[in-house]
Amino acid sequence: MKEKLIKDYSSPGRTAYSLPELDVKERDFKTELNGYLREDLDLPEVSEVDVVRHYTALSELNYGVDSGIYPLGSCTMKYNPKRNEEIARIPGLSYLHPYQDEDQVQGSLEILYDLKLDLAEISGMDEITLQPASGAHGEFTSLMIVRHYFEERDENRKNVIVPDSAHGTNPATAKMAGYNVIEIASNKRGMVDLDALKAAVDENTAALMLTNPNTLGIFEEDILKITEIVHDVGGLVYYDGANMNAIMGYAKPGDMDFDLMHFNLHKTFSTPHGGGGPGSGPVGVKDFLAPYLPKPLLKKAKDKYYWDHDRESSITKVQSFYGNYGVMLRAWAYIKTVGGSGLKKTTENAVLNANYLKAKLKDEFELPYAADSLHEFVLSGSRQKEQGVSTLNIAKRLLDYDQYAPTIYFPLVVKEALMIEPTETENIDTLNRFVETLLTISREIKEDPELVKNAPHNTSVRRLDETQAARNPDLSW
Q1: 150 & 218 share domain
Q2: In the record, which positions carry N6-(pyridoxal phosphate)lysine (predicted)?
Q3: What is the CA radius of gyration of the chain?
Q4: Residues with Cβ within 8 Å of residue 179, at least 6 apart in sequence
């Protein structure tokens, strides 16, 4: 279905709202605006029902976690409980302003402090800052802490080690922080190659950036050896928290000897995200790195909560105020709702769902790494590619079946990658429908490959010429 533009509903004299009679002195706004008034402003004249039906129709063209499965690997696009939304909209919380005096916002500060304690317990870290505004921002904050730590020790370390299966933001963050990026290859099982790591570390190593489980969904079984190798040369080990949904209640980065990490509140702790935001990327550190955290740092003295600005070794602020407050409220509500046992159950169901899908699909699609996976797994569309149909074509065809595609072409170590993360919120019926759809598409590729190559067929916007779109983008509306 194709929806018209709002201006196409316009009819002269039609209105959606009647303003009350003027109860103040009338003024000549044309004179007061002094030439700033546009004479050619062509606003649509529409009724309320026109407006409601138009924007309702637009909303029905969108797809999100409230519509169905959203299996983007490494994105943890779980359903967001509406209870979180209700709490975040309580007027006493949502109408606050960051410039208000601390004495007026003690309740909110208590919530944030409580969230800090929960994140520290979940992660095994000692101190937390809630300031970073996204996962990538949390990465950058962590790398700036690493940089400041070595500068205070008069050590000019230049290198950050990143596995070849790392998130794309990892090498970008290291480069932004002023480091050389040293990439190391994975072994045949999809894990960090210990020999490659030993060859890469030296007195110039500032940090290793690592996700565990990694982007293949595989837990690094040698994680304590990995952290030990880096620590033996005086380097730090940073944990990318993107895949925390796989380990909550079972493992803690702090217990794996990571020195610092970031969290994705908008992933693991159930806050709506996608399309660029909102996000929240708190950073947790061990005690010896706590002095370098951004200021101000939320603290408690007796029964009062306050912002500590007196931090001499801090990397200073990384955001104008104190963090994305609405996201934190939702994450706090989620943690308090499910509790510690619920977080552990979340992990169990996320791992169960992913392994169920893998077992159902691995015979039809190539499984490049056979090692046990946790909350996500990676298939390859190489067999389908040999029949002339790419992973991109498969992803587009999924849209015709009213389902969202998984992450594709990532991680880069897998050709024609399909990276699937169903999360814990999908039930067996939804999982079975997703499996049947992918198996149907695989059959279509054998019987009528052009059908899949020209997908999608049922969406409001058809397949774009991606080469032309990149070379000649239409930047006007």
Answers
A1: yes
A2: 267
A3: 26
A4: 143, 147, 158, 159, 160, 206, 207
Overall number of domains in the chain = 3
- Residue 207 φ/ψ, nearest 5 degrees: -160, 160
Say what the pTM is. Answer: 0.90
Q: What string of pLDDT tens digits covers the 477 residues of the chain?
A: 678 999 999 999 998 888 889 899 888 888 888 878 887 788 999 999 999 999 999 988 888 888 899 999 999 999 999 999 999 999 999 999 999 999 999 999 999 999 999 999 999 999 999 999 999 999 999 999 999 999 999 999 999 999 998 988 999 999 999 999 999 999 999 999 999 999 999 999 999 999 999 999 999 999 999 999 999 999 999 999 999 999 999 999 999 999 999 999 999 999 888 766 689 999 999 999 999 999 999 999 999 999 999 999 999 999 989 999 999 999 999 999 999 999 999 999 999 999 999 999 999 999 999 999 999 999 999 999 999 999 999 999 999 999 999 999 999 899 999 999 999 999 999 999 999 999 999 999 999 999 999 999 988 888 878 788 889 888 875
470 inside domain: no
Length of the chain: 477
Domain final residue pick, 338, 364, 397: 338
Positive or negative: CA dihedral 258, 263, 264, 265:
positive
> 317 and 247, same structural domain?
yes
Distance CA 440, CA 432 (A): 12
Task: Residue 87: count other Cβ atoms within 10 Å of its Cβ.
Answer: 19
Q: Is 77 a domain residue? A: no
DSSP alpha helix (H) spans, 6-153: 29-33, 48-61, 82-88, 91-94, 106-123, 135-152
What span, in angstroms and rounded, lies between the C-alpha atoms of 164 and 268? 24
CATH number for position 169: 3.40.640.10
Cα 27 from chain centre: 50
Tell me the residue range of the domain where 164 lies: 83-338
Residues 186, 281 share a domain: yes
